[in-house]
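Subject: Sanity check before I submit

Could someone independently write out the structure tokens for this chain? I want to compare against mine line by line before I put it in a report. The sequence has 155 residues.
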Amino acid sequence: MKDIQAIAALYEQVDNYLETLRDTEETAGGDAERDRVTHKQRINDQAYFVLAWGQLEAEIEEACRDAIRHAQRHSDWRHRRAWTLYNPDDPRLSGLSFQNRLTLVVEKDSYEWKRTMQHYNLRNQIAHGNLVSERIAVSNIVQDFLRIQSSLARD
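---
Independent answer below. Compare away.
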């Protein structure tokens, strides 16, 4: 997640600007102007959420590829036999769903697994054009993504 801190910092800059604008519009233009800026903030939140999500998803992908490679090198065929079904160099990871890729690197039913799937479902909703009506606390989300990243199995 090499760019996550830069994404979070830029989000904060833009959000602070919009917040200042909203406060100014509130006093100058009334509720309609404030609502217009608030709408922009919601869209901005969602755009940065999806951008930050891409960083976490790339980490999960790489951890999954590493787990497959590691398991395929096991000396005992009984331990590596199922892992040979997957091609870690396949851009689509041999057709593994995101949920299955996540399960290979995060303990299923753990807090991190459940939280990642919640974020994944939100990402899908937004990316498929169904914007959410409430704000997203992107700074908190980034911290959550970093926590999830630290839980990824790397062997």
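---
OP: Matches mine. For the report I'm noting this point. The chain has five helices and no strands.
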